[in-house]
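Checklist before submission:
- one chain only
- standard amino acids only
- sequence pasted in full

Submission:
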Amino acid sequence: MAEEVVDARKTKIDADAAWEMLKNASEVIVAKGKKVQRFATVAAERDAVLKNVMGPSGNLRAPTYRVGDQFVVGFNDDLYTEWLNQA
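Returned file contents:
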């Protein structure tokens, strides 16, 4: 069960707030359609991470999931299947 749920339609997360959440992550996985990018050295890849996790409106893309110190941003059915089978 989710410990915290934030409705992206009501709570906007800008680049600075997104970076505060993501900067200490062990991995950020970003899905855009069929394309999946993995960032394992998050702190060293700030600009690339933010470029990929932020939507055109300037807010963190939805859905965004955090499990432990890992984040998954965006939707890709194959990625979710793989990610959930690892957990």
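Reviewer check: Helices lie at 15-22, 46-53, 77-86.
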